[in-house]
Design goal:
Number of helices: 8
Shape: globular
Radius of gyration: 18 Å
Order of helices and strands: HEHEHEHEHHEEEEEEEEEEHEHEEEEE
Strand order of the largest sheet: 14-13-10-6-5-18-19-20
Largest sheet: 8 strands, antiparallel
Number of strands: 20
Length: 321
């Protein structure tokens, strides 16, 4: 029996995106995610929207641009939602649509377990409150240190960079988010990240790691990778872009959705309440300066986060704010 996607589709279209009658709504999926695109399209029709469904060829990596005809369509509607195999979040097409006043959500790597999860149909008012609380804790912060029991010890600076709140409430012009939602994230200042980064949770396009991936970071760039097969895969993905910018330390993110559970899929794992995630590659779409054509996140479990050398806001995965 085919799963019932209707409840999740209704939450996405009605609660998260707030679709209204006669709004132009674009659903973008690919040949591997069509089963999620169609119920979202049908729910947009139920909301009396002027809905369109585009099914495209899957991209080859997170952050790769969609075809120009898709990018143009994204700029021409009121609302878009993109359940796709690979992420359109950190693309110039998504950025241009948002800047044009389109509101929208991406759902990269979506699968049945996530689409039907409690995190997808969470109380997004509660999620919003938690996201805003963590966002306030990062306001006016210059220096951030992230450590973990697995050996992470990374320092970076975020002074002056916008703190992005992914609340799941996407109702106003130009609003954008990732669904399921629930994170705070920021682009570190280029060249400032130093130390050791350890991914012992999930890595985008790789899954949950069997062995921690240890990355040495110098002058804002990843310089070496250790940790067996997963480390080799991550380095190969980044080198495959053919740009040194792929190795940029691009994002600091903090999971804020208490209903999210580790599943080995970054779409939901980066929202898990007691985790931090760090991305490599592109951050030009959310306040950074690096255009890389790739954006790969990895999850740090049981993190401790210290800001401005004086306040611990997370200790061993537990919020102290």
């Amino acid at each position: 029996m085919e799963p019932d996607y209707s409840k999740s589709a209704r939450v996405v279209i009605r609660s998260c995106l707030g679709v209204k009658p006669n709004e132009k709504v674009l659903v973008i999926c690919d040949t591997e995610t069509e089963r999620f695109g169609r119920p979202l399209f049908n729910e947009a029709l139920n909301a009396e929207a002027e809905a369109t469904l585009i099914i495209m060829k899957p991209r080859s990596r997170h952050g790769e641009e969609p075809p120009e005809q898709v990018a143009a369509a994204m700029r021409s509607v009121d609302v878009f939602v993109a359940p796709t195999k690979y992420s359109l979040t950190h693309t110039q097409a998504r950025k241009a649509a948002t800047q044009a006043g389109v509101r929208g959500a991406t759902m990269p790597g979506i699968n049945d377990a996530i689409f039907l999860s409690e995190a997808m149909v969470a109380d997004y008012i509660d999620v919003k409150n938690r996201v805003e609380k963590m966002g306030r804790a990062l306001q006016n912060v210059k220096k951030v240190v992230i450590t973990s029991p697995a050996g992470c010890n990374l320092t970076l600076y975020i002074d002056g960079r916008p703190i992005i709140l992914d609340t799941g409430i996407i109702h106003n012009k130009g609003d954008f988010g990732n669904l399921p939602a629930g994170e705070v994230y920021v682009a570190p200042l280029e060249g400032t990240a130093e130390g050791t980064l350890v991914f012992d949770g999930t890595i985008a396009s790789i899954g949950q790691v069997a062995r921690p991936v240890v990355i040495k970071v110098k002058n804002g760039y990843a310089t070496s990778f250790e940790g067996g097969e997963e480390a080799a895969k991550l380095e190969k993905m980044l080198r495959g872009v053919g740009k040194p910018e792929a190795f940029n330390i691009a994002e600091l993110g903090i999971g804020c959705n208490p209903h999210a559970k580790l599943m080995g899929n970054l779409l939901i794992d980066e929202k898990v309440y007691n985790t931090v995630h760090i991305a490599l590659g592109d951050n030009s779409t959310f306040g950074g300066k690096t255009i890389a054509g790739i954006h790969i996140d990895g999850v740090v479990l049981r993190p401790t986060v210290i800001v401005n050398d004086e306040k611990t806001i997370i200790k061993d995965g537990e919020w102290l704010i």
